[in-house]
What does this fold into?
Amino acid sequence: MLAFLALLLLTAPAQADTIYTYTGDYFAERGGPVPSHLQGVYTTADRITGSFTVADGFLPDLGQAGRPFTDGVLTYSFSDGHQTLTKANSTGMFFLTLAAPDVEPLWFITITSAPSTGISLYYNRERSDFGILDAENFGGNSGCVYGVCDGSHLGTWTVSVPEPMSLLPAVAGLGGVVLLRRFRLEHD
It folds into this structure.
């Protein structure tokens, strides 16, 4: 048993992939020259959530041109509450652009599974998220791109790097339990 646990620990990958997780604000009807729409199944209870993973050490190119880093994305899964799009059932495009020095980078992520179906989220002074099931089912959380910013429709990004060595205490603890049991069996 201990040999198996040691083998498991030794064969665990030494690298830790980076996970970017997004939680958008709830969809809302907004005014402005190009208002967002809540049609079909979408309601104000819907929002976009999801994450994507890049390999250990991978950093998106922060160029002015907004070059995609799609090839660096290992996996992704995003949902708008009615569809979940992954690498297995859709095509994603991932951009990260530095608009100007000392300015927060701009995210642009578009994931489609058909011409009129997909999820899109981007940050350009305010986050604007869209979920599209078809021409009759369009949800949106349009921020201030076409209107006045009020700060109430910002999504949030978190970045995490799972620690592969966190497996070590669990394996050591399990090994200790096995040794204790063996000791008790031999001395009873």
About this structure: The first strand starts at residue 18 and ends at 23. The CA atoms of residues 13 and 164 lie 7 Å apart. The chain has two domains: 1-16+164-188, 17-162. Confidence is low (pLDDT under 50) at residues 1-10.
